[in-house]
Backbone:
């Protein structure tokens, strides 16, 4: 489990591109036949990627979280960003198509991932500490709360699927969903925003091989950017704005953990305020 320590806004102005990438970009979560994990001290979130590649992978405990099994003191949201695969939790099988979301609560002991090999399932994990247990729940694409946002005239027409949230699948603190940009739209959100009460992570996917997303971060008076490719993740601390524009349309998994679960609890950063 890779460790990422917390940072503060005063560090950003002196960071090089390499520094920014080392702190906030997770470029290699997915590797065939492996489960890879990254622990960030921002709200003690764990990001993970599981690629069964025709076999089966078991999610175990890690010394960094001091637990006998991964969900002993945690909960996890899982989104499949690849082909169809299966997650098994304490003997119950959940078949997940691309874009489906599975919530697993605190206390589940045995979690494994599998696919048929040619299916190419890629499971993305977002986990946070949990102090109570909620039932497991699987949501297929389009079955959550669907919100149509943005406008084609401003290049940000998008479909937002809310899966784990205060009016959907119940959790202790994880909020999670998937946003798909419509063809011809590139901005995932604008104006950008912050929410001092939650850390948010993005996983960009369905980014064409020859395309990239320019992700904005930092404070509104001191912005920086990262160039992000397909199936790469961004850690966005609570004080950092987050927005991005691609050279082509794409999708992304957004997930948050922190003080509350109110999706609209955000502080907008108008375009005219950005520096």
Residues:
């Amino acid at each position: 489990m890779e460790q990422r320590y917390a940072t503060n806004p005063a560090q950003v102005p002196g960071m090089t591109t390499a520094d920014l990438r080392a702190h906030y970009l997770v470029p290699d979560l997915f590797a065939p036949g492996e489960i890879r994990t990254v622990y960030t001290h921002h709200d003690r979130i764990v990001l993970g990627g599981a690629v069964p590649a025709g076999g089966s992978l078991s999610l175990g405990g890690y010394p960094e979280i001091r637990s006998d099994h991964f969900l002993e003191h945690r909960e996890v949201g899982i989104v499949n960003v690849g082909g169809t695969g299966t997650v098994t939790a304490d003997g119950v099988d959940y078949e997940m198509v691309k874009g489906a979301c599975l919530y697993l609560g605190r206390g589940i002991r045995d979690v494994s991932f599998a696919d048929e090999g040619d299916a190419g399932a890629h499971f993305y994990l977002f986990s946070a500490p949990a102090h109570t247990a909620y039932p497991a729940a699987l949501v297929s694409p389009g079955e959550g709360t669907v919100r149509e946002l943005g406008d084609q005239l401003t290049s940000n027409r998008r479909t937002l699927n809310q899966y784990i949230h205060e009016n959907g699948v119940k959790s202790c603190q994880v909020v999670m969903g998937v946003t798909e940009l419509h063809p011809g739209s590139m901005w995932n959100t604008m104006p950008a925003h912050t929410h001092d009460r939650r850390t948010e992570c993005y996983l960009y996917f369905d980014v064409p091989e020859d395309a990239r997303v320019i992700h904005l971060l930092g404070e509104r008076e001191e912005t920086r950017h990262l160039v992000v490719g397909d199936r790469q993740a961004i850690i966005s601390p609570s004080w950092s704005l987050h927005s991005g524009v691609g050279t082509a349309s794409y999708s992304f998994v957004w997930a948050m953990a922190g003080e509350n679960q109110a999706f609209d609890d955000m502080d907008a950063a108008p375009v005219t305020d950005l520096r």
